[in-house]
């Protein structure tokens, strides 16, 4: 490829071959390549509406096109010319609002019996950082509003204290950034970044579990901030005591402050969420349509948001008003997606890689270093436990190891788990994260 433009032409062709013609003409055909730095492709669309649709539905397809063409993963950033013209799409705006979403505030957070306590705790922290609950630990299943509360805290504190250094980071990104800092010899910069904040917000902190160097780093970061009376807010998919691969000293610190849970919303709250989202788009959502959707999508607020976005797309494309028939069409894909997804060998190896800070390629290789060999044996055990693949097929995934080697590895790990509770809990976490 001589240029990014030529590269993207090939990606667009890939997308065209994998979507309906009408979809391609409406949403993908007009995407233009802006820049590529070797890791992130910036693409431009004409309107905020097109940006919203592309981000929520077609970015995975575009990324798949880049992967097929280039052989490696590429991040994709969608830029709206409409927002650029109005000055809305600035670096500051991106920092405060997750891509493709409206502003996360306490005002547009729907409060119900399932989240009232967590909402009140988050508001108290935002109003008086370090004075109310420190740390604040919010836990609950994916898609129930934990990230919304984190951003609401960030936005409120920034408005009241524009001079504060507020750091928001995902737990997995924190772990990967530390690995990169160690590789580049820039750990002092890493320390400075995370230990100089006035407020530290960490989403999905459970991802640091089982990663010894990451936990060690976070332990010192936590202590530095806590002793300096800086606010810490953490979210997780489970309470601290259930993150089995978490160091006891971290688990204890996470329990020093307040633990608040967010549960699935009840029917009335789900209907209120749907109506609030519809109002944001200026769309009239009939009560029977809202009740139909709410009765079928019960456990994930993001699914409710996605359905409203789809109904709004129908309305803007062809003027179709929300009806029961249209709602059935809008939730069809979501209902299909709720079927169990097969756990792939690649996903399991990736989770073992993240847990032990060892690359996928090393785990698959013939390297005999003790740390690598240990991670490889655990990967084989988990693959056999979760997928039930034949031993020969498992061996093929690890440089064509034979049946006897795989059997030995599985038996060795099983034997170790009988007496090593820490290993057993780590493997339980790997299995759980592989299925999430």
Portion of residues within helices: 55-70%
Structural class: alpha/beta
Q: Unreliable stretches, pLDDT < 50, 5 or more residues?
A: 87-102
Determine Rg (CA atoms, Å): 23 Å
Strand order of the largest sheet: 5-6-7-4-8
State the distance separating the first and last CA atoms. 37 Å
Total beta-strand segments: 8
Biggest sheet descriptor: 5 strands, parallel
- Oligomerization category of the chains in this entry: single chain
**What's the helix count?**
21
Order of helices and strands: HHEEHEHHHEHEHHEHEHEHHHHHHHHHH
Strand content: 5-15%
Shape: globular
Q: How would you state the average pLDDT, rounded?
A: 84
Structure overview:
- Helix content is 59%, strand content 9%.
- The protein is built from 21 helices and 8 strands.
- The strands form 2 sheets. A 5-stranded parallel β-sheet has the order 5-6-7-4-8, with helices on both faces. It has a 3-stranded mixed β-sheet with strand order 1-2-3.
- Helix 8 runs antiparallel to helix 9, helix 13 (287-296) packs parallel to helix 15 (324-337) and helix 18 (370-387) crosses helix 20 (403-419).
- The longest helix has 23 residues, at 48-70.
- Mean pLDDT is 84; it is low at 87-102.
Key words describing this protein structure:
single chain, 436 residues, alpha/beta, five-stranded parallel sheet, 8 strands
SSE layout:
Blueprint lengths: L3 H13 L4 H8 L3 E5 L3 E6 L2 H23 L4 E6 H6 L4 H6 L19 H12 L8 E4 L6 H15 L5 E5 H14 L2 H9 L3 E5 L8 H16 L3 E6 L11 H7 L3 E4 L5 H14 L6 H10 L4 H18 L5 H14 L7 H12 L3 H5 L5 H18 L3 H6 L6 H17 L1 H15 L1
Parallel strand pairs: 2-3, 4-7, 4-8, 5-6, 6-7
Antiparallel strand pairs: 1-2
Helix pairs in contact: 1-3, 6-7, 8-9, 12-13, 12-14, 13-15, 14-15, 16-18, 16-21, 18-20, 20-21
């Amino acid at each position: 490829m001589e240029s990014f433009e030529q590269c993207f032409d090939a990606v667009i062709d890939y997308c065209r071959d994998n979507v309906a013609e009408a979809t391609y003409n409406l949403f993908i055909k007009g995407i233009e390549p802006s820049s590529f730095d070797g890791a992130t492709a910036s693409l431009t669309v004409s309107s905020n509406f097109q940006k919203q649709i592309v981000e929520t539905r077609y970015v995975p397809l575009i990324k798949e096109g880049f992967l097929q063409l280039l052989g490696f993963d590429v991040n994709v950033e969608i830029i709206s010319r409409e927002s650029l013209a109005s000055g809305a799409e600035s670096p500051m705006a991106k920092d405060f609002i997750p891509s493709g979403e409206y502003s996360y505030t306490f005002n547009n957070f729907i409060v119900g019996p399932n989240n009232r306590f967590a909402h009140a705790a988050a508001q108290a922290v935002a109003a008086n950082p370090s004075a109310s609950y420190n740390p604040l630990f919010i836990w609950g299943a994916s898609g129930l509003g934990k990230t919304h509360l984190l951003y609401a805290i960030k936005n409120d504190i920034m408005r009241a204290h524009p001079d504060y250094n507020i750091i928001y980071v995902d737990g997995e990104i924190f772990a990967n950034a530390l690995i990169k800092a160690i590789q580049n010899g820039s750990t002092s910069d890493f320390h400075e970044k995370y230990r100089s904040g006035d407020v530290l917000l960490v989403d999905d902190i459970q991802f640091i579990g089982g990663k010894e160097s990451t936990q060690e780093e976070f332990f010192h970061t936590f202590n530095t901030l806590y002793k300096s009376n800086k606010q810490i807010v953490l979210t997780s998919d489970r309470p601290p005591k259930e993150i089995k691969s978490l160091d006891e000293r971290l688990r204890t610190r996470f329990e020093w402050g307040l633990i608040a849970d967010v549960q699935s919303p009840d029917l009335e709250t789900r209907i209120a969420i749907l109506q609030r989202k519809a109002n944001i788009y200026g769309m009239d959502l009939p009560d029977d349509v809202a009740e139909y959707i709410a009765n079928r999508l019960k456990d994930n607020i993001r699914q409710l948001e996605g359905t409203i976005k789809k109904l709004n797309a129908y309305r803007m494309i062809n003027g179709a008003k929300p009806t029961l028939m249209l709602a059935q069409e809008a939730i069809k894909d979501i209902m299909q997606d709720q079927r169990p997804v097969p756990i792939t060998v690649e996903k399991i190896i990736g989770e073992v890689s993240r847990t032990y800070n060892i690359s996928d390629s090393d785990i698959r290789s013939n390297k005999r270093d003790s740390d690598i060999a240990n991670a490889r044996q655990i990967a084989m055990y988990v693959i056999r436990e979760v997928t039930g693949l034949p031993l020969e097929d498992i061996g093929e995934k690890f440089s064509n190891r034979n049946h006897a080697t795989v059997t030995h590895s599985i038996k060795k790990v099983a034997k170790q788990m009988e007496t090593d509770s820490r290993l057993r809990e780590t493997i339980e976490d790997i299995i759980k994260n592989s299925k999430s």
